[in-house]
Each structure stands twice: as C-alpha cells, then as structure tokens.
Design goal:
The complex is a heterodimer of chains A (324) and B (346). Chain A has 324 residues and is of the alpha/beta class. Chain A is 38% helix and 20% strand. The termini of chain A are far apart. Chain B has one domain (19-322): Thiamin diphosphate (ThDP)-binding fold, Pyr/PP domains (Rossmann fold). The chains are: A alpha/beta (324), B alpha/beta (346). The complex binds thiamine diphosphate.
Chain lengths: 324, 346
C-alpha cells in the first residue's frame, strides 16, 4: 500500500495498464509534452512514446470518433477531455456511434473517455459541470465515478478492460484534496458494486463522486446529535447497484439521494423514483433529494456555494428526515 | 493567400493612406496601453487572491485586437475570444467592469455569473464568449445572416478563432455557411502559434491556419498581428468587401502568445528565443515608435501613459467598491421574459 492522491491514483491506474497491455493508448489535448491540463498524464509520453500518448488537435469530435475506430481496430483507447464540459463537442459520437454500435452490429467498443468534472472552485459555467445525468439516459454507455484513490486506480483499469464505452468521471475537486491508501500493482474494482462508505442505522444517503465526501462530512456532524447516517458510495451509476440501495434503505427506512448534477433531470431523480417504486413498503418517510439548483454553475464563489450542494444542506435534510 | 504589405513609408503618409489621422493612431495606442494595463493589474489581483478560479491574458495580442476593433463600426457585432481584451477596451467597455468581472463582483458584465475574459456587452456590440472554442464563430455567422435577411447594408459581423481552435468543426461549418451565402462577416484568426502547449504543426497541416479559406472558396490575408495599422488596413478592406456582398475573408493575425496559457502555466515548452524575438516586436513599443516618428513628443507620450495609469487606479478602486452578488439571486434569471425582447439590439 502507498498513500497517494486521487489524481496520482488515476495516473497509476493508467500507467499500470499501459505497461501490461500494449494496445492501450491515450489521446487528448496537451496530454503529451505538457502532461495534461491537470498533470494526470505527466511524464507518460516520455515513458510510452508519442504514439501511445498522443497530443491531439483541439478536436473533441475527432478524438472521440477516432477512439471508436481505434477500438474497432483492436486498440484500447483512452481519451482525455481537457474538462468534462468539452465532451459536449463529442456528444454525437458518444451517444450516436459508440453507445449503439454493439447493439446494432455486435462489435464491442472498448474505449474510455476521461472526464475531469465537477464544481467547487469557481470554474464558472463551462468548467464545473457534472454531466452524468445527460448521459445516464443513453443505453450502451457505462458511467463510472470513483470517490476514493483506491477506487480511482482500480476503476481506471476496469474501465480500460471493459468491452464497452466507459465514461470515467474524475472529480477535479478531489484530485489533490483527497488522499488515501492505494494497493500496489494491477487490480480492478468491478462496476455495479456499491460501497458502504460509512455504516449507520437511521438514514441512508445515496451518493457518488465528490458528494460521497460531502455526505460523510454531514454524517460526522450528525453523529454528534445522535443521528446515525449510512453513506452509500454508488461508484458507478451505469450499471447501478440497486440491490445495495435496497439493502441499506430496508435497514434505515429513510433515504436521501445526494447528487451534483441539476436536481431536475439529474440521475438522483431516477434513483428516487426507483426507491419509491420498489421500496415503498420499507420507507418511513418520503425520499428526499439534495442536488444542484436548476441553473448553470455560476463563477463568483458566493453564488456557486448557493447553487452546489453544501454539507450544511445535507445536514439540514437529514435532520428534517429523521424528525419525520 | 494575400499578404498585406507592411508599409515602410513615412508614418504620416501611411496614416493618410489608411484614412486615419494622428489622433486615431493615438487612440489605438491608448487602447493598447489600457488593455495591457488591465491584464497586468489582473496578475496582481490574482496574486493577491482576489481573482477566484484561473486567470488568462492576451499579452502580445493587444495590437491585433485593437487593430481589428478599430476597423469595426458601432452597428457591427463582434464575437471576440480569450486573447482579445483590446476589443472590449476599443469598443468602450469600462475597465472597472472588467476588474469586477475578474473578481466575481456584481458590477461585471456577467454580474459574477461568469469569470475572467468570458465577457461581453451587447450594448457595445459584443457577444460574450463561452469557453468552448470556437463556439462563437457560428454565432457570428448567425448575426451576419440576420443582417442579410433584414437587408442591412452597412452592417458586418466579426468572429474570432484561435489557431488551435480552427481544428474544430464549429470553425469549418461556420465558415462554410457564411461562404456559400456570401454573408457580411469577417473572420479573424488570432494565430499566436500555440494552443495551450500544442504547437501549430500538431494543430493543422497547412502553412497558415487561414489557408483553409481556399477550401471554402474564400480568400485569406495574413498580417503581422503586432502592427495594429497593418491589421486595421486588412480588416477594413475585408469589411468593405463583406458589406458589398462579396463574401467573407479570413484575416489571420500572427503574433506569439507572450505568457502561459493561463496563470498556472509557465510556458516551459515555448523556446526562450521565440519570446525574445517577439518581445522585440512588442505591439505597444512598436506603435509608440511609430507615433514618435509621426510627430508625437516624448512629453505627450508621458502624458498618455500617466493618464492611463491614473484611469486604471481609479477604475480599480471603483471595481473594489462593487459588491459581491447577492447569493439569493443565484438561481434567478435562468429564463428570459417576453418584455426583455424589446431591447434596442433586437
Ligand atoms: C472545445 C474546447 N476544447 C478544449 C478547450 C480548452 N482550451 C482552452 S484554450 C485552449 C487552447 C486554444 O488554442 P488557440 O485556439 O490557438 O487559442 P489561444 O489560447 O492560443 O489563443 C484549449 C485547448 C476549449 N476551450 N474548448
């Protein structure tokens, strides 16, 4: 075990798998000489050469479209979007081509698109978005979003090996802030298996990515008030481990879904609906959602704080729910 | 491709040939000083922790930005990008509003909703940019389309693109639409030789990014972007052509991005000699020399410079006094209401 940041863990995952499998290559803007806007691929072009860490033109459509082709050509491409927000420029290729190719033609598309996502540091409307909800309605894509360094590395390797197009949401606000123990060598963390980030008996918070940490912070605060919160880290939302949700909610009878996408249309709405639909009998209170307000992410810190879910919002929601 | 002649003629003759007087050139010079002054103060504000997020400048591009904007008319629309502070300054955006934008204050053009150079003011004819490059280029084409449909004869749109961003479909689709309809628009490529850390040869395979004009049946002009007058001349001609119904031109302004992509980037990948070569062509110093030759005295120059300094001190104070936005407004204003359509620009 070594202690490393979330960012280092992602790099480690990429490097380990690239050393093991010659078919893996990275393509994106400024990933080579510069080492990526966030330095995730720092030093990798030196180690793997120019044809495995490829500096692409400013062309998200070409990058993602070419990954589909390279996957068909027997490679294991990994695309980096400089910011998740720019994946909108490759939307068509992901949702039209990559996602539907296997269903139509029976040819797997083993590709990974890395998406540095999320807000919390004044990135403004175009460098802060959490895009999972937009893609969650597109069958054929896997959506994965680690919350810890250990998961980040294992899920990176799993993403590369997966025979489907995988959107790897890596949260920028976790990059250097979150450190943890990471196993050495190659290992994978399977998709569709949630993790109990904190055990509790009174209320379940369903979360993923950076929101797991917000939920955990809220849970620690609430412990002082005698409210015992369970935090479930979904790890991936497609596939979704609904069994884990069912197990936890059956125990606590109260559920909050916490997500960083917009409240309306974000994937938390889908989870809430399923809890209501399938677990109604186990509930002692209505399902609650804590999510980003239905507006673009503003730049000024005072506005951004108002819009993104804060620990205090979660604490308040849990209190209200446990008093129900 | 046509290359504009950098006239080595007598400054006064040159100005006359461009239809400008010395006062016009002094205004350009002053706008360039204000532009650089804003961004230099931005660096200080950033170091003081007053600018959240990141911070971008257009150092080295002041001549190109001011040169283009000086050739526009008040009724025109402009879609400038991240290196074009000089466009905003020339069109009359008050510096305090830029500082307020940098600091996320309510007095900035986006009222704290967006940051840094994602700025614009439709009352000055400037459409605020988005990050996604060059998404504003097809928007500029749409403005030109609106003039064409409404048959507005002396109105022109200006849309920018970087050398790097010219690799994206938005550029090619936008240019093509404008070309087939001969729309009244001028395309500007800010060719500062780098796209973040990516050198030109990994961005496009033509000699110049604007050489792709040929593929769309258009002409391109490559000018020295450190000479505002050369830029002005090429853009003025392109505008005349565009409003005469002869179609768009791509004007490429060649410069070097004189700083990193943003504050966090020390541009280690740019050869030091290149910085030295291009520092010697500094657009502001170049214009100063030109004006001295055209009869501006050192005293006059000093007066202009100290005037700009005073202006910026005063404007910065004004920005610092601008309050932070009211958090309760964060989720308001997502949708417009019908009465807002009755603004002068519609
Ligand atoms: C669609 C899109 N992808 C990626 C980025 C991130 N990005 C911002 S500026 C930049 C480089 C732009 O290069 P260029 O167009 O040459 O303009 P310059 O910054 O050099 O003036 C990149 C990659 C972006 N803004 N938009």
């Amino acid at each position: 075990m070594a202690t490393m940041t979330y960012l280092q863990a992602i790099s480690e995952g990429l490097k380990e798998e690239m050393r093991r499998d010659e078919r893996v290559f990275i393509i994106g803007q400024d990933v080579g000489v510069y080492g990526g806007a966030f330095k995730v691929t720092d030093g990798m072009q030196k180690e793997f050469g120019e044809w495995r860490v490829i500096d692409a033109p400013l062309s998200e459509t070409a990058i993602v479209g070419a990954c589909t082709g390279a996957a068909l050509g027997g490679m294991r491409p990994v695309a980096e979007m400089q910011f998740a927000d720019f994946v909108s420029c490759a939307w068509d290729h992901l949702t039209t081509v990559s996602a539907k190719q296997y269903y139509r033609m029976g040819t797997p598309i083993p590709m990974t698109v890395r998406l540095p996502c999320g807000g919390g540091f004044s990135g403004g409307p175009f460098h802060s978005q959490m895009y999972d909800g937009y893609f969650a309605g597109c069958p054929g894509l896997k959506l994965v979003m680690p919350a810890t360094p250990e998961d980040a590395k294992g899920m990176m390797i799993e993403a590369i090996r997966d025979p489907n197009p995988v959107l790897f949401f890596e949260h920028k606000h976790l990059y250097r802030r979150i450190k943890g123990e990471v196993p050495e060598g190659v290992y994978t963390v399977p998709f569709g298996k949630a993790r109990v980030a904190r055990e509790g008996a009174d209320v379940t918070i369903v979360a993923w990515s950076a929101m797991v940490h917000v939920a955990t912070e809220a849970a620690e605060q609430l412990a002082g008030e005698g409210i015992d919160v369970e935090v479930l880290d979904m790890r991936t939302i497609a596939p979704l481990d609904f069994e884990a949700i069912a197990k936890s909610v059956t125990k606590t009878s109260k559920a909050i879904v916490l997500y960083e996408d917009t409240k309306t249309g974000g994937f938390g709405g889908e989870i809430s609906a399923r809890i209501a639909e399938e677990l109604f009998e186990t509930l002692d209170a209505p399902v609650r959602r804590v999510a980003t307000a239905d507006c673009p992410i503003p730049f000024s810190p005072v506005l951004e704080k108002e819009v993104l879910p804060q620990t205090a919002d979660v604490v308040e929601a849990v209190r209200a729910l446990s008093a129900y | 491709m046509a290359t504009a002649a950098s006239a080595e003629t007598d400054p006064r003759t040159r100005l006359r040939a461009l239809g400008l007087d010395r006062e016009d050139a002094v205004t350009m010079y002053r706008n360039m000083l204000v532009t650089r002054g804003i961004e230099e103060r931005g660096h200080i504000l950033f170091r003081q922790g007053k600018i959240p997020g990141s911070f971008y400048t257009g150092r080295g591009n002041e001549g190109a930005a001011v040169g283009v904007a000086s050739a526009t008319k008040p009724q025109d629309h402009l879609c400038p990008l991240q290196r074009d502070m000089g466009v905003h300054v020339t069109r009359g955006l008050e510096p305090w509003r830029v500082f307020a934008q940098y600091m996320g204050r309510s007095g900035g053009p986006t009222r704290g909703r967006d940051g840094n150079v994602h700025i614009g003011d439709i009352s000055l004819g400037i459409v605020g940019m988005v990050s996604h490059l060059p998404a504003m280029l097809p928007v500029g084409v749409g403005l030109a389309l609106s003039y064409r449909i409404k048959n507005e004869r002396d109105r022109c749109a200006f849309a920018w693109c970087g050398d790097g961003a010219s690799a994206r479909g938005d550029f090619h689709e936008g240019v093509n639409l404008a070309a087939v309809r001969k729309l009244p628009i001028v395309f500007i490529i800010d060719n500062n030789q780098w796209a973040y850390s990516t050198p030109s040869n990994l961005g496009y395979a033509t000699e110049h990014p604007s050489d792709r004009a040929k593929g769309y049946g258009l002409q391109n002009v490559v000018v020295d972007g450190t000479d505002p007058l050369e830029v002005y001349e090429a853009v003025k001609e392109a505008r005349d052509k565009a409003v005469a119904g002869e179609g768009p031109t791509i004007v490429e302004c060649v410069t070097l991005r004189m700083e990193g992509h943003a504050v966090h980037d020390d541009a280690f990948y740019v050869p030091k000699e290149d910085f030295e070569t291009w520092a010697a062509k500094d657009p502001i110093e170049r214009t100063r020399k030109f004006l001295l030759e055209a009869g501006m005295s050192e005293d006059e120059d000093e007066e202009i410079r100290s005037g700009v300094k005073r202006l910026l001190v005063e404007q910065l104070d004004k920005a610092e006094a601008s309050p932070l936005p009211d958090p309760s407004t964060a989720t308001t204003g997502v949708y417009a209401s019908p009465e807002e359509l009755d603004t002068p620009h519609h």
